[in-house]
Design goal:
The protein has 3 domains: 3-100, no CATH class; 105-238, Jelly Rolls, CATH 2.60.120.1440; 244-309, Phage tail protein beta-alpha-beta fold (3-Layer(bab) Sandwich). The protein has helices at residues 3-14, 20-31, 42-48, 57-68, 79-99, 236-239, 253-263, 289-299; strands at 106-110, 117-120, 126-129, 134-138, 147-158, 167-170, 175-179, 183-188, 192-199, 202-206, 209-213, 217-222, 229-232, 245-252, 269-270, 279-285, 308-309. Strands 1, 2, 3, 4, 5, 6, 7, 8, 9, 10, 11, 12 and 13 form a 13-stranded mixed β-sheet that branches. It has a two-stranded antiparallel ribbon with strand order 14-16. The radius of gyration is 29 Å and the shape is elongated. With 310 residues, the protein is α+β, with helices and mostly antiparallel strands. Residues 113-201 form the FecR protein domain. Keywords: Membrane, Transmembrane, Transmembrane helix. The chain crosses the membrane at residues 77-99. InterPro entries: FecR, Ferrdict_sens_TM.
Length: 310
């Protein structure tokens, strides 16, 4: 074996500079590689190969398979030399396992802002990610038979239709959503799972149970009752957040203030007892508390409503 040729190709491979013919030659030489002396020592390896660099998927796959497949021969080396070889091989395998690690196979979108994050997927689907929500997508999203993503938190989905490749949203648990070309709002949290369908068709799965939804319906699971339940809803209530709005239909005023407190936990809102029986229908901004209070007080000005804010 020409060790100098192998070393040359080896370094070009690690630098991702091999031509197609050089790559083929290198992989053939790698298959028959027995001499650890032809590999870089640990210090030189670390200097020449950045572990954060990711090789193209096909090259990473090829060398990963070559190194990890069983050999048809055994090394006949002294103990000390064998130990050095094992160390060097472990360094190479560690770098390849890093490149092939599950984390490197996914795109992770985390909304750490206070605004809505808009995500456009390769298939034409659009996802509006609510603050603190996390969406995980496979790098092989376009080539897999199912278009799969995973959600933590709340998001609104506008899914591009593709009957040959169904769209699936998975939770951290055994709950998932099977999508058939549709628009829907979805919330996956530790305490509850719920989906509201605004257009199209989908199914919620939990274990062996699946429930299909029609537009204007909600399917949900709670911690107290871990089975899918279904009910008719006003979808505006579940879509309003995409426009930074809160939507209420004939809601008791004390419940409206309870919702506002959830959005502004640093504020203490007090509703005098004489106004407890009032009910509100309409929109309030979810990012402007003074404006929300002004709208409520104007709506009920005939009642001389005053909301105390500390």
């Amino acid at each position: 074996m020409d060790s100098s040729r192998f070393s040359y190709l080896y370094r070009r491979y690690l630098a991702n500079q091999c031509t197609e013919s050089e790559l083929k030659e290198f992989l053939e030489l790698l298959k028959d590689q027995d001499e650890p002396a032809n590999l870089l020592d640990p210090e030189e390896f670390n200097q020449q190969f950045d572990l954060q660099h990711q090789l193209p998927e096909d090259q990473s796959e090829a060398i990963f398979n070559r190194i990890t497949q069983p050999k048809k021969h055994t090394w006949k080396l002294y103990t000390t030399v064998a130990g050095i070889a094992a160390l060097l091989l472990s360094i190479i395998c560690a770098s390849l396992f890093l490149l092939k690690s599950p984390e490197s196979q996914y795109k992770i979108f985390t909304n750490t802002t206070e605004d809505i994050l808009r995500i456009a997927l390769e298939d034409g689907s659009v996802i509006l990610l609510r603050p603190q929500a996390v969406l995980t997508q496979s790098h092989a999203f376009q080539s897999e038979p199912f278009r799969k993503v995973k959600l933590q938190g709340e998001a609104f989905f506008i899914v591009a239709k593709d009957p040959s490749r169904p769209f699936q949203v998975q939770s951290e648990s055994e709950t998932s959503i099977q999508v058939y070309g549709t628009r829907f709002n979805l919330k996956f949290t530790p305490s509850a799972k719920e989906v509201v369908l605004t257009e199209g068709s989908l199914g919620m799965k939990h274990g062996t149970q699946e429930v299909r939804l029609n537009p204007q319906e909600k399917a949900y699971i709670t911690a107290d009752y871990p089975h899918i339940q279904k009910t008719a809803v006003d979808t505006m209530k579940y879509m309003a957040w995409t426009e930074h709005q809160l939507y209420f239909t004939d809601e008791p005023l004390h419940e409206v203030l309870k919702t506002l407190k959830g959005h502004y936990p640093e504020q203490s809102l007090q509703l005098p007892k004489q106004f407890q029986g009032l009910r509100f229908t309409g929109y309030l901004p979810d990012n402007n508390l003074p404006e929300s209070i002004q709208i409520l007080e104007s709506t009920f000005k005939n009642y001389n409503l005053v909301i105390n804010k500390n």
